[in-house]
Write a structure and sequence with these properties.
Layout (H helix, E strand, L loop, with lengths): L1 H7 L21 E5 L5 E5 L8 E6 L8 H10 L1 H6 L2 E7 L3 H9 L13 E4 L4 H5 L3 E2 L3 E2 L1 E6 L5 E7 L1 H18 L7
Length: about 180
């Protein structure tokens, strides 16, 4: 149903811009974010260029069914990102105040706890729009972008919402079954 609606919608608009951003210069943005210490900060993507890789993790909305699972899973690997000199930024169209409330909500009630990476507020939807993940001018599709130290997009994945949910479920099952066989664990 969702995929049919997406295919019928004007998601891609009348624009001729390429959907793939791989090999292109990353869209720079400055936005409010909530850091690991729950402080509201200004996040400027260009401040990481020349210093480290960036991983932009777009997710639809705070308080949705799969988002806490996804955010918590990424947070479990935050040290791996740091050891590889990668800045992880979670991005949604929610406000920084919504991010703070979500972090303060107990995990067993749908919260995410005190995640150790910055959650960026794309409340005006410009970031999502420029990374081609904004759906129906309302929220971001799930997307993952890797940006190198030169500011070039090296990887892009954008997923339909139900597909990601199934992937997260299957990955969890695989991890439980084969956890001792996975590399880098």
């Amino acid at each position: 149903m969702f995929l049919k609606k997406l295919c019928r919608s004007n998601f891609f608009g009348n624009s001729r811009r390429s959907f793939s951003l791989v090999t292109k210069k990353a869209y720079n943005f400055t936005a409010q974010g909530l850091n690991k210490n729950n402080e509201i900060i200004n996040v400027d993507l260009s401040s990481f260029i020349g210093q480290k890789y960036c991983c932009l993790l777009f997710y639809p909305l705070n308080y949705t069914f799969v988002c806490p699972t996804e955010i918590i899973e990424f947070n479990k690997h935050i040290k791996d990102f740091e050891n590889k000199n990668v800045e992880l930024l979670g991005i949604s169209v929610d406000s920084v105040y919504s991010h703070l409330a979500w972090k303060n909500m107990p995990i067993e009630k749908g919260g995410i706890g005190n995640v150790e990476f910055t959650l960026v507020s794309d409340i005006n939807k410009d970031i999502s729009k420029n990374y081609n993940v904004l759906y129906d001018n309302s929220f971001a599709l799930r997307g993952l972008f890797i940006i190198d130290k030169n500011g070039c997009v090296r990887h892009q994945t954008v997923n339909d919402l139900p597909i990601v949910e199934k992937f997260v479920q299957s990955t969890g099952k695989r991890d439980k079954k084969h956890s001792n066989q996975l590399p880098n664990r």
